[in-house]
Amino acid sequence: xxxxxxxxxxxxxxxxxxxxxxxxxxxxxxxxxxxxxxxxxxxxxxxxxxxxxxxxxxxxxxxxxxxxxxxxxxxxxxxxxxxxxxxxxxxxxxxxxxxxxxxxxxxxxxxxxxxxxxxxxxxxxxxxxxxxxxxxxxxxxxxxxxxxxxxxxxxxxxxxxxxxxxxxxxxxxxxxxxxxxxxxxxxxxxxxxxxxxxxxxxxxxxxxxxxxxxxxxxxxxxxxxxxxxxxxxxxxxxxxxxxxxxxxxxxxxxxxxxxxxxxxxxxxxxxxxxxxxxxxxxxxxxxxxxxxxxxxxxxxxxxxxxxxxxxxxxxxxxxxxxxxxxxxxxxxxxxxxxxxxxxxxxxxxxxxxxxxxxxxxxxxxxxxxxxxxxxxxxxxxxxxxxxxxxxxxxxxxxxxxxxxxxxxxxxxxxxxxxxx
Length: 420
Fold this sequence. Notes:
Blueprint: E1 3-9, H1 13-24, H2 26-33, E2 36-43, E3 58-59, H3 63-66, E4 73-76, H4 82-93, E5 97-100, H5 103-117, E6 122-123, H6 134-141, E7 147-153, H7 156-168, H8 172-181, H9 190-193, H10 196-210, E8 220-221, H11 229-238, E9 240-251, E10 254-265, E11 277-284, E12 288-295, H12 299-315, E13 332-333, E14 340-350, H13 355-365, E15 370-378, E16 381-388, E17 391-392, H14 393-404, E18 414-418
Parallel strand pairs: 1-2, 1-4, 2-3, 4-5, 5-6, 8-10, 10-13, 10-18
Antiparallel strand pairs: 7-9, 7-11, 9-10, 11-12, 14-16, 14-17, 14-18, 15-16
């Protein structure tokens, strides 16, 4: 049996799990790949860090892997953007196949890597939704379809926090502390809770679905840090689940891309996905809706996706990294102000006669109608919780600007989008 030789750069939680699975499931992996898989060398950043003993040599010089003519595939499992990009470029220029789990690097440099790779294969299944095979589903399984929409819960940290807030009635900071204690959130959780992790993943999926080259700065990104129990109460009252979603939609020849907290109807399948789990709904023009559910993070789940790429490279000749042989795609990114949605507003006001009339007047002047309304009173203040019928993003922004300028309004209103 022929042998395929790997060099692994990064032996943290995911890298160590890759080594474990390759060892424990060696026979079945070889049978599926049609060849033996051998790790020749691993690269680590810090030799002083306590780690398990591997049956292959380690180095702190990545060039020992990148320049080794006997290594067929470089498995890049580090963090960051620019340093991993340099590793990836050198691997490809040295005629080595590349596998990466680095969503941040791909969010910025995926098209550059595709151009450098030429006919060399690049595997990146592990970069989105951990063990869920969403990359292969979009690129291969749904290849006959125009993708009409993607909606995904693709950050387990945020899903855990919002689930706990809704089930236990506790505040954001309290649940965040619990998530950090359990290892679901980092000491600095901003990358997750501000929406950037989900945005990086959405950009990768959008490239495969639509062939569109967008950067994080091009799309709408909002996190969950401003969510309160008043928002949760509104969701319960009017039959919604509250989730952080990554959303891509095709509208004619334009694509809208956005990440933000979203109210979903209680009967929506995505609304029932709780805890740290991930799920992605994809609607194709031929197949209709398909749903993908599973563990979106964790060493073993992510390592499973890495090894699926190793097997695919062993089995087949190269295929386009992002799924398109040609670039005849005329789709463009929809301007953010042109996005159409229904909206929820939380507005803190002085408890005075005529306040609601002032707010309704402003909404009406910009062409927005109110769908539902709740009012909570507390001494001299009232909190208005209302939802609107669909309107353009530009219209709701203008309304919020005008409402904020009213003397009776005590803070900038909180806005959450509603997906029907």
